[in-house]
Amino acid sequence: MLTPGTDIRIDPAVEAALTRAVDALQGKRVAVLTGAGVSTDSGIPDYRGEGAPRRTPMTVDQFFASDAARRRYWIGSHLGWMAFAAAEPNAGHRAVAALEHAGVVTGVITQNVDGLHLRAGSSRVVELHGTMRRVLCTRCGQVFDRRDIARRLEADNPWLATGPEVALGPDGDVRPESADGFVVPDCTVCGGVLKPDVVFFGEFIPAGRFRGAEQLVHGSDALLVAGSSLVVNSGIRFTERARRKHMPLVIVNRGTTRADAAATVKIDTGTSEALAALATALTPR
Q1: Residue 200 to residue 179: CA distance in whole angstroms
Q2: Which of 84, 130, 157, 248 could pair with 198 as two cysteines, CB 3.0-4.6 Å apart?
Q3: Any bridge partners for residue 109, and if so which?
């Protein structure tokens, strides 16, 4: 089997696993759960992939603890958002969208906040951990477009528009060297604290959003996990639901995951090539 659009032959062991995965998913309505590994080929790093540096993202308690913490966060978040905005969907994102358009994939549950599934053309996407596209007021609930907040940040802190090159984090944050003198935007409606519409470490996923993801899994016949080690409990819950429903579970991920023992098929390879190959095999002729 050749990876579509390339002349690189897939490793025989991976090819055998892909064949088993096609057999398991053929004729099924497939829900897809994706993690950071799906976006690495778009230049966005993985938290836990091989060679990934140890990261300690800001928790929600730290964010609300002090003005200084919020200044540090907003510098890093803005510089990271600029890199996110420049990223493009890769072959894996496009393959998932193609499978949805073909009626194979019922929808995507993603742990990513980069918006790349939507930009690739997927229409039913549950952004489990939120999105970098929106900013919320934590007092009155007003919603702002991230681009408008970015313009305010750069107007008040002109150096941001041409900021230094930084190491991007999976959630769109970086670690600034200094936050001295940085002006943090506040809510133009009530003056409250603004926060990107993402689930911080230590926060709960909104109940309605989680129910939407559960409904997607319950309305499907199989679950395909791509690019997630399933360390975060929000992901492992869906594999447990699939197990209880006796649904085929296919996992594509470099390295081990918490659900490998429960997988119908585990494919230890990159997500872009595997998803592209699955899309070619599963798309009805």
Answers
A1: 20
A2: 130
A3: 33, 126
Contact 252, 227 (CB under 8 A): yes
Q: For 266, what's the count of Cα atoms within 13 Å in the CB-facing half-sphere? A: 15
Give the angle 209-114-183 at the CA atoms, nearest 5°.
Answer: 100
Tell me the C-alpha to C-alpha distance, in Å, between residue 16 and each of 10, 28, 114: 10, 20, 32
**Which domains are delineated in the chain?**
12-282 (3.40.50.1220)
Which whole number is the average pLDDT over 11-32?
96
> Which tokens sit at 119?
């930009």
Distance between CA atoms of 26 and 38, rounded to whole angstroms?
22
User: Would you tell me how many other CB atoms lie within 10 Å of the CB of residue 56?
Assistant: 8
Place of tokens 């003198």: 181
**DSSP line for 194-250:** EEEEE--BTPPPPHHHHHHHHHHHHT-SEEEEES----SHHHHHHHHHHHHTT--EE
Q: Is 70 exposed, middle or buried (0-12, 13-18, 19+ CB in 10 A)?
A: buried
- What single DSSP character describes residue 160? G
Among candidate residues 117, 129, 218, 246, the one labeled active-site is: 129
Residue 195, beta-bridge partner list: 136
Residue 210 has pLDDT above 50, yes or no: yes
User: Which residues have C-beta within 8 Å of that of residue 11, sequence separation ≥ 6?
Assistant: 269
Distances (CA, A) of 110 to 37, 43, 87, 146: 11, 17, 17, 20
Give pTM, 2 decimals: 0.88
pLDDT-derived band at 3, boundaries 50, 70, 90: very low
Q: Which of 115, 107, 112 is nearest to 214 (CA)?
A: 107
Q: Give yes or no for a contact between 66 and 179, defined as CB atoms under 8 angstroms apart.
A: no
